[in-house]
Write a structure and sequence with these properties.
141 residues, mainly alpha, Four Helix Bundle (Hemerythrin (Met), subunit A), two-stranded antiparallel ribbon, 6 helices, 76% helix, 4% strand
Length: 141
């Protein structure tokens, strides 16, 4: 699937750019990342991991709202970020976002998914870098 197909299937849709929603998504991304860190320290690796993904998801929404795009699918958000921002955000971080998206789905809907301490820690480190790159794009274009 590509961006065009996401728009055709209404998984993404055009809206007016909304910097207020971008700002709120940035705040949510930061809050979720801090929660992920606290959960990690307490040994709740699955919960830390899902909060880390949520942080990256909201960070992505910062750019979508800035660009005037509303999402209706987590996968479509990944497609949008990959196609529109892979020259500005490290592809490793974009791929990490997609990996976290897949794993989050397994945690929520699967039966046996257990996130290790190392996986949770790597996710947090990637989310910190991802958030930093997104915030830089939000503030400096």
């Amino acid at each position: 699937m590509n961006i065009l197909e996401c728009f055709e299937k209404r998984l993404l849709r055009k809206i007016n750019p909304d910097l207020e929603k971008s700002k709120k998504s940035l705040e949510t991304a930061k809050t979720k990342l801090e929660e992920a860190k606290r959960l990690f320290e307490a040994g709740f690796f699955n919960d830390s991991f899902t909060n880390t993904y949520t942080s990256m998801f909201h960070a992505s929404r910062v750019l979508l709202y800035k660009d005037g795009v509303q999402e209706k699918s987590h996968y479509a958000v990944y497609i949008y970020i990959k196609e529109k921002y892979s020259k500005k955000i490290s592809l490793n971080l974009i791929n990490s976002f997609n990996f976290l998206r897949d794993e989050r789905h397994e945690i929520f809907y699967g039966f046996d998914e257990e996130i290790t301490k190392n996986q949770a820690e790597k996710a947090i480190l990637d989310a910190e870098d991802f958030l930093e790159e997104v915030e830089n794009l939000y503030k400096n274009g």
